[in-house]
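All the exercises in this workshop are built on plain-text protein records. A record pairs a protein's sequence with a compact description of its fold. Backbone structure tokens are a discrete shorthand for how the chain folds in space. Once this layout is familiar, the rest of the handout is easier to follow. As an example, a complete record with its sequence and its structure tokens follows.
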Amino acid sequence: MNLPNELRKAVPPLGDTEPRQDLWPRMLLRLDRAPRRVQWLDWALAVLLLASFFVFPQAVLGFFYQM
């Protein structure tokens, strides 16, 4: 059993893998159109983090150590 030959038989070649056009300008347009909103869950996590710093002041050191 020749494994590379079996793999070549099982997985056909991909052919042309290059995109037909440059995708970066379209990506930049999409990023400019995307709304920059902060979800409520992000705010809730930030408030929870700040509240935990007031309850456990030593946690600030651990937080900055992990950053």
